[in-house]
UniProtKB/TrEMBL annotation, chain A:
This is NADH-quinone oxidoreductase subunit L. It is a multi-pass membrane protein. Its main location: membrane. GO terms for biological process: ATP synthesis coupled electron transport; electron transport coupled proton transport. GO terms for cellular component: endomembrane system; membrane. It comes from the Bacteria. Residues 132-426 form the NADH:quinone oxidoreductase/Mrp antiporter transmembrane domain. The chain crosses the membrane at residues 6-22, 29-52, 82-103, 115-132, 138-157, 169-189, 209-230, 251-269, 281-302, 309-327, 333-356, 376-394, 414-438, 450-470, 495-513, 589-609. Keywords: Membrane, Transmembrane, Transmembrane helix.
UniProtKB/TrEMBL annotation, chain B:
It is found in: Endomembrane system; Membrane. It comes from Shewanella salipaludis. PANTHER family: NADH-UBIQUINONE OXIDOREDUCTASE CHAIN 4. InterPro entries: NADH_Q_OxRdtase_chainM/4, NADH_UbQ_OxRdtase, ND/Mrp_TM. It holds the Pfam family Proton_antipo_M. Belongs to the complex I subunit 4 family. One of its GO terms (molecular function) is NADH dehydrogenase activity. GO terms for cellular component: endomembrane system; membrane. This is NADH-quinone oxidoreductase subunit M. Its main location: membrane. One of its GO terms (biological process) is ATP synthesis coupled electron transport.
Length: 610, 518
């Protein structure tokens, strides 16, 4: 079982290495790239079968030591428990499907092997992230996925906008990552270890002793959360995610929807015992989650670019996960992470297929009337949007309902209100997206038909998006005391409103759509608001004014190095003095004679007077 | 004896290379190669030996001494411990890298070039091995003068200015160090009645007089100039930028490390209380250097200057670690010297290759290199990513250890220094996106690429001479270049993923050093 565990991240890593070094032809590339992740997925299925009956299992394996010096002991160890098993199942499962999809989707790209090299490296890094047994190895995976995300956003490197988006994504997440690293320092000096299990044990003991609210621990939790905020695009480090859509669509599906952006959720869930020691930080997490989910939903409502709608909705759904973490329901958060991975990957891949067959048209206002043209896409989008809007009996319904119930139970009415409002807006924009694409007047001709493998991937994901949330109790073993049946203390309003609001949202969307409110330009009174929302609540402009511009200006102002000017001044003064003294050297005898007499006189005078 | 040969071989090789030029212009380079390889061959037994069994003289692997000037008790004393072993290895390996980059770039006065090249390497090796203060000073000067010639003769546009600046800065520091050495020996003489320039004797009885701080300051200043630390860094961008690629490689890879080495070897153990006294100031300078260097790097348009300023930022971590008085930080310092040596010289080599092919290193004129030089660009991407501290590569481990070690006592400085990780990413990403990515800007290369059709992403392999021609697409890496870069990439991966052997070897000697310093 050790070998199986080690092979899971190693296979994509080796395949990535082979693709970089050998640069094989397209056929071999596809076989290597897709095959390695498929094999990993099969190994994960094998692990699940082996561990089927067990609930509290821990498997470990190690690649060897990494850094051991003084009291620092860090190995390249892997750690598999129920939580990481769920994560690797999602990563390799959804990952394999998306790889399969990409094999057809990217077929015409000249940089085919580079694409799969990056994508495989990403899967390897993500697997290391979730399997790491210590926080530094987790950090390695954490930075690794960030690097791959950067490389893949900028995959079409000839377009400067793509490079800018890639840089923005890397830098904004790097800010969070650096905070995370400082958090690791604090934890190391507090617990004398960076091993996740050891820290958890110590934290559980502290919790048992009732020692909550220690400022140092609060601070380290805050720093860990700052890392999560960057990676998972939450306020205030959220604005990179919409721009990250510059990458190829399968990348958006894998990295910027299903896996990497959920790393922050995983980080908090993984260290949950620690966070329980800092209730104030948990409340902050819930608040940030709520704010982000409203921000994302509000912006998704007015976007015209198909992928940006999905990006903002991802941000918003991640907000729900953080809300769940904050109110003490980590297993629910992971449940939503899983269902979200299914339906959002489906939506992105369906969007990719649509863009593929519409000759790279991404503007949803220019689509329409496609309902009888591509029945497969209609089904796929329908299932994805329904799950996103959490219509009853879809996967998103189960997980989001659970989050709303938990929020209601947690006794924070404001958070609950925000979450419910968010659910309403979510339904509204999901329905808007669906109607705008499939109903109304057809404006763009479809060109390609979808290749078979893409069709199959879409069908499998449709099934997962619809049915993937039926049995959440398997997840209840993840973290104790989390998923339980809804309790009776919920009032009728709290119980029925979340069920009704999505339906209301869809109805409202239909009414607005049929009156043409979505397609016609907004009136002068609304335009500034629409623009404000569309631009992500003005955060980009704010950051540009507040940080980027001053930095660039200051740095440009000093590009010749003021310190060097100081030394230049020294050199200049020396030269000036040299010229001054040089003037005395006239070559005229009378000048010299005069100065001799003058200095003799001065000498005599000094002798007499002094 | 090995140690003496380590220094003599390059010295003799240099003289021979100069003389051999009159027979064949290709000989000097081969002579340089042979002398460097034979030095490596000499060291091989030490590298392969069991680390514990190798310590024949306390913590020293090798220790030899001859009388030199008996009247003042000055000896030709050389010794090797694990710190110097690693730095000597770095010197020789990076010497090979520099040689590889000189192979085709240097066409004029080859004999004299390789003479200077080998003599400056010999000086650096001497600095790492000398255990007598005056001998140390002698080697300090030996590495300086040939380097001056390397920059002044084979450099770029503004070479004379840069060479003189480099010389003056280092010489000023060297002078202060000489004064400090004499003062140190005299104070030691007053204190113990023993006139000795020997490092190990001086170490046995640290001076206690009130002047210790001033003497210490003299040493510190000399090493800070070399490191270089803010505000003594301003010679470095000019020297690096104007130097020919092989000289840039030696400067970045090893010459700067003599500053860090000096701090570790002399300042910390010889002046424990004085270095504690100066620690807050040094930590401040380190943090300013990290941030300032990174911000300066961002604003540069000359690619080589950008890399040069990034050195200022990275070497700030060395200074930070030295004055953290912490084992983890010291381990980090050693790793940082090795990793920075490799990654930065790789970047200099790459810039040299770009300049050799496209005759510019202006970031505003470059762009889209990936389209015509995919392998070179991929390598550039790798080393830029290494420089910004990607985990799994050497620089990350080093910076992590320095910051973690420093955090224990001076959390504030570590936090401020950690901002260097974000700023480092900013300039590295700027360099990547402005040179390798984007549209192909150079009209000549773009035209050539277009004329061969959009499908041929990889240009046909050709000789460099053909690439220097008027309308050809610049050729991608040739075998020698690819091998050089691949070796360096492997070294960084090794440092990043399996630094354990180095850490274990350094543990004892750094612990002893730390004990002496506290």
């Amino acid at each position: 079982m050790d070998t199986m565990l080690l092979a899971i991240p190693l296979l994509p890593l080796l395949s990535s290495l082979a693709l970089v070094l050998l640069q094989p032809g397209k056929r071999t590339t596809a076989i290597l790239g897709v095959g390695s992740v498929m094999l990993s997925a099969i190994l994960v299925v094998g692990l699940q079968l082996l561990l089927w009956q067990q609930t509290r299992f821990v498997e470990t394996a190690s690649f060897g030591t990494w850094l051991t010096t003084g009291r620092l002991e860090i190995g390249l160890g892997l750690y598999l428990d129920a939580l990481s098993l769920v994560m690797i199942s999602v990563i390799t499962g959804v990952g394999a499907l998306i790889h399969l999809f990409s094999a057809s989707y990217m077929r015409d790209d000249p940089d085919y092997s580079r694409f799969f090299a990056y994508l495989n490296l990403f899967v390897a890094a993500m697997l290391i992230l979730v399997l790491a047994d210590n926080l530094l190895l987790l950090y390695l995976g954490w930075e690794g996925v960030g690097l791959c995300s950067y490389l893949l956003i900028g995959f079409w490197y000839k377009v400067p906008a793509n490079n800018a988006a890639a840089n923005k994504a890397f830098l904004m997440t790097r800010i969070g990552d650096t905070a995370l690293m400082l958090g690791l320092f604090l934890l190391f000096y507090r617990f004398n270890s960076l091993n996740i299990a050891e820290i958890q044990t110590a934290a559980t003991e502290l919790l048992g002793a009732g020692a909550t609210g220690e400022p140092l621990l609060g601070l380290s939790c805050l720093l860990l959360f700052a890392g999560a905020v960057g990676k998972s695009a939450q306020l205030p480090l959220q604005s990179w995610l919409p721009d990250a859509m510059a990458g190829p669509t399968p990348v958006s599906a894998l990295i910027h929807a299903a896996t990497m952006v959920t790393a922050g959720v995983y980080l908090v869930a993984r260290n949950y015992p620690l966070f329980e020691l800092a209730p104030a930080v948990l409340l902050l997490i819930a608040t940030i989650g709520c704010l982000t989910l409203l921000l994302g939903a509000g912006s998704a409502l007015v976007q015209t670019d198909l992928k940006r709608v999905l990006a903002y909705s991802t941000m918003s759904q991640l907000g729900y996960m953080f809300l769940a973490l904050g109110i003490g329901a980590p297993a629910t958060a992971i449940f939503h992470l899983m269902t979200h991975a299914f339906f959002k990957a489906l939506l992105f891949l369906a969007a990719g297929s649509l863009i593929y067959s519409l000759q790279h048209q991404q503007n949803i206002l220019k689509m329409g009337g496609l309902w009888n043209k591509q029945p497969l896409l209609l089904v796929a989008f329908g299932a994805g949007c329904a799950a996103l809007a959490s219509l009853p009996m879809t996967s998103g319904f189960f997980s989001k309902e659970m989050i709303l119930e938990k929020t209601a139970e947690s006794g924070h009415p404001l958070l609950w209100l925000a979450a419910v409002t968010g659910a309403f807006i979510t339904a509204l924009y999901s329905a808007r997206l669906f109607y705008l694409i499939f109903f109304g007047r057809q404006q763009t001709q479809l060109s390609h038909d979808l290749p078979g493998s893409m069709t199959w991937v879409l069908l499998i994901l449709t099934a997962l998006a619809l049915l993937g949330g039926i049995e959440p109790r398997g997840l209840s073993v993840l973290l104790p005391g989390s998923i339980a049946t809804p309790e009776a203390q919920l009032g009728p309003l709290q119980h029925w409103l979340p069920l009704l609001l999505p339906l209301l949202g869809i109805g409202l969307a239909w009414w607005l759509f049929s009156t043409g409110a979505f397609t016609r330009p907004s009136g002068p009174r609304l335009t500034p608001w629409v623009l404000f929302l569309r631009g992500g609540w003005g955060m980009d402009t704010l950051y540009l004014r507040l940080f980027v511009d001053p930095f660039v200006r200051l740095s440009h102002l000093n590009r010749h190095d003021v310190i060097d000017k100081g030394y230049g001044l020294l050199a200049g003064t020396t030269c000036a003095l040299h010229r001054l003294a040089g003037r005395l050297q006239t070559g005229q005898l009378r000048g010299y004679a005069a100065s001799i007499i003058l200095f003799c006189l001065a000498g005599i005078a000094w002798g007499i007077l002094g | 004896m090995i140690l003496l040969w380590l220094i003599l071989l390059p010295l003799m090789g240099g003289a021979l290379a100069w003389y051999a030029e009159r027979f064949d212009a290709r000989l000097p380079a081969w002579i340089a190669l042979v002398s460097l390889l034979s030095c490596l061959g000499l060291l091989l037994p030490e590298v392969l030996a069991d680390p514990a069994a190798g310590l024949r003289y306390g913590l020293w692997l090798q220790d030899v001494a001859w009388e030199w000037i008996p009247r003042f008790n000055i000896q030709l004393h050389l010794a090797l411990d694990n710190i110097s072993l690693l730095l000597v290895l770095l010197t020789l390996l990076m010497g090979l890298v520099a040689l590889s980059s000189a192979w085709e770039e240097i066409v004029e006065y080859k004999g004299f070039f390789y003479f200077n090249f080998l003599w400056s390497l010999a000086g650096i090796l001497g600095v790492f091995l000398a255990m007598d203060m005056l001998l140390f000073f002698l080697f300090w000067e030996v590495m300086l003068v040939p380097m001056y010639f390397l920059i002044a003769i084979w450099g770029h546009e503004n070479r004379r200015y840069a060479a003189i600046k480099f010389f003056l800065f280092t010489q000023a520091g060297g002078l202060l160090m000489l004064l400090s050495i004499i003062a140190l020996v005299l104070v030691h003489y007053q204190q113990t009645g023993l006139l000795s320039f020997d490092y190990q004797r001086l170490l046995a009885a640290p001076i206690t007089s009130a002047s210790a701080r001033w003497i210490c300051l003299g040493f510190i200043l000399a090493f800070l100039v070399k490191l270089p630390a803010f505000p003594f860094h301003s010679w470095l961008p000019d020297a690096h930028t104007q130097a020919p690629t092989p000289a840039s490689v030696i400067l970045a890879a090893v010459l700067l490390k003599t500053g860090g080495y000096g701090l570790l070897r002399f300042v910390l153990p010889l002046f424990p209380s004085a270095s504690h006294y100066f620690a807050p100031l040094m930590l401040t300078l380190a943090v300013i250097g990290i941030v300032y260097g990174a911000v300066m790097a961002f604003s540069q348009t000359d690619m080589k200057r950008l890399v040069a300023y990034s050195s200022v930022s990275h070497m700030g971590f060395v200074l930070l670690g030295c004055f953290s008085f912490n084992l983890l930080a010291l381990q980090g310092v050693m790793l940082q010297m090795l990793a920075h040596g490799v990654s930065t010289s790789a970047l200099f080599v790459l810039v040299g290759m770009v300049q050799h092919r496209l005759h510019t290193r202006d970031l505003n004129k470059l762009g889209g290199l990936w389209q015509c030089l995919p392998r070179l660009s991929a390598m550039g991407l790798f080393f830029a990513i290494a420089a910004l501290g990607m985990p799994g590569l050497g620089n990350f481990v080093a910076e992590f250890l320095v910051l973690l070690g420093g955090f224990e006592q001076h959390a504030g400085f570590s936090i401020l220094a950690a901002s260097g990780l974000v700023l480092g990413a900013i300039y590295c990403l700027r360099m990547i996106s402005q040179s390798f990515w984007g549209q192909l800007l150079l009209p000549r290369a773009a035209g050539a690429l277009a004329s061969t059709g959009p499908d041929s992403q990889t240009p046909p392999s050709g000789t460099l001479a053909a690439a220097a021609g008027t309308s050809a697409i610049p050729a991608d890496l040739n075998a020698r270049e690819a091998m050089t870069l691949a070796m360096m990439a492997l070294a960084l991966l090794g440092l990043g993923l399996h630094p354990q052997p180095l850490l274990s070897e350094l543990n004892a000697v750094l612990s002893a050093l730390l004990e002496a310093a506290s």
